[in-house]
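Subject: UNC93-like protein structure
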Amino acid sequence: WDALSSFSFGHIAKHIGRIYCLMFAALIDYALIITMLLWVPRENQLWVLFILAGLWGVADGCWQTQIAAAYGTLFTENESAFSNFHLWESLGFVIAYVYTPRIRIRYAHIILLCVLTLSMICYAIIEIR
């Protein structure tokens, strides 16, 4: 779903704009995180995990393409911005992999909600300016 989403959002953003694509991805992520916070898994609900993973892939495909497009627009003369983006993205992965096993998953989801909210606020500020 990630690859199909990346391809699709690349074309959709041309028609509706990057901000709406990212808002859609954020809504998917909010719904998924809240679902994971509230859902109590049962043995016969394995299919739900596949739906959650597929939707996560849809949102991730949007994030990957639209953030790269935003960097291309914001930093037209500075190719090192892409390296900087990937550096911080990788650092974020490392931080999450370090703290997640040491805390309850509920708290990891709450942290994820907070980071998503902060990210969307910062992106809105960039779009307004």
